[in-house]
Specification:
single chain, Helicase, Ruva Protein, domain 3, two-stranded antiparallel sheet, binds calcium ion, five-stranded mixed sheet
Length: 349
């Protein structure tokens, strides 16, 4: 089309206005189409064919069907950028204020009161303290106010096929999540080219990744569908089921303040391996004690977090570890703990 335009060179060949309209209207129309709908042009992605072959082999979805969906995924630089600067990179004293706000605490009390019966039902059924169900939904999406505006298909394909070089290549994880997402679409009739979520592809009020959705989402309202976007019963039930299945123990401690003696074995202080293996009694013998009333045979970990004025120590227990199954960061789990306490206090008023 542009080549035709350039061939009009001499004045007497210059077309009249009606001819111009005939030439230009389709030209502008097509330019307009290209600029408005550029995002919908199918894209080839590196590794997409190999990925499609794996999906067919493992889940019997034909290669052609997989490729037709994956080609609709759009690479998003903003997703790569978000992945390279997660909030979990901040020190605790900067991370904490993001979540421990009056608005989020009061929002949690309101959310709990609005959903009192279903939260109580989920808490009882799955054996999870109710304030933690509320707190996780509060930290994840501010009780549904921020569920993410990225197309999940774009997020997962971008991170599966274009994972940024951060020294920790998680492309295989996102490739597996993309596979689970396509399977989820097949199994549950979720419109995979439409649904939105976080930049990492987490969905709904509880921000479930596709593999978690398939494994842990529940149909608590009994309508035959697991809907983590709009069924509040399914949402609170699924969060509770997730924690319950990962070993939550109702009414058991999550964390306790800790102090270290001058000769304490500082090697025990960690932020990485949060699975409790050493008992509170043995940790006391190594110099770490707590003022809380915790049985000496309770397994614990000594966690150190940076406050503005230096490191603060905590003992964390099995329930804290269960929260890290939702998000590996100890900052995340501590925010969930503190928000849960504040919401419970606010509710009991
Ligand atoms: Ca349902």
């Amino acid at each position: 089309m542009q080549a035709n335009f350039l061939t009009i060179t001499s004045p007497d060949e210059y077309p009249d206005i009606n001819t111009m309209k005939r030439i230009f209207s389709p030209l502008f129309a097509s330019l307009l189409t290209v600029s408005c709908y550029a995002q919908d042009v199918p894209q080839d992605h590196p590794g997409a064919e190999e990925f499609a072959a794996r999906v067919e082999a493992e889940h019997q979805i034909p290669v052609s069907e997989v490729l037709a969906l994956v080609e609709q995924a759009q690479f998003k630089q903003s997703i790569v950028d978000a992945m390279t600067r997660p909030a979990e990179g901040k020190p605790w004293h900067e991370y904490r204020p993001i979540f421990l706000t009056d608005e989020r605490i009061n929002g949690g009390v309101a959310f709990w009161e609005e959903n009192e019966a279903r939260i109580a039902a989920a808490s009882e059924r799955y054996g999870v303290d109710p304030e933690y169900i509320v707190s996780i939904i509060g930290v994840e999406t501010f009780y549904g106010r921020i569920t993410g505006s990225y197309r999940v298909l774009d997020a997962l394909a971008t991170l599966a096929f274009y994972y940024p070089d951060t020294g920790n290549d998680r492309s295989a994880f996102f490739s597996s999540e993309l596979m689970n997402f396509l399977v989820l679409g097949n199994e549950e009739g979720i419109p995979v080219t439409e649904v939105t979520g976080s930049y990492a592809g987490a969905m709904g009020l509880g921000q479930f990744m596709p593999s978690s959705y398939r494994e842990y989402a529940v149909d608590l309202d009994g309508d035959g569908r697991r809907d983590l976007w709009s069924s509040m019963d399914d949402i609170v039930g699924s969060v509770a089921n997730y924690l319950g299945r990962h070993g939550w123990e109702y009414g058991q401690p999550v964390v306790a303040d800790a102090t270290a003696s001058a000769d304490a074995d500082r090697e025990q202080v960690t932020r990485r391996d949060l699975k409790p293996k050493i008992t509170v009694g043995d940790l006391a013998a190594m110099g770490f004690t707590t003022g809380a009333d915790i049985s000496s045979d309770t397994p614990a970990v000594v966690l150190g977090l940076e406050e503005a004025d230096g490191q603060r120590l905590w003992l964390t227990f099995d329930n804290f570890y269960v929260i890290t199954r939702y998000n590996r960061s100890p900052l995340y789990a501590m925010a969930v703990y503190e928000l849960a306490q504040a919401i419970r206090q606010g509710k009991e008023g």
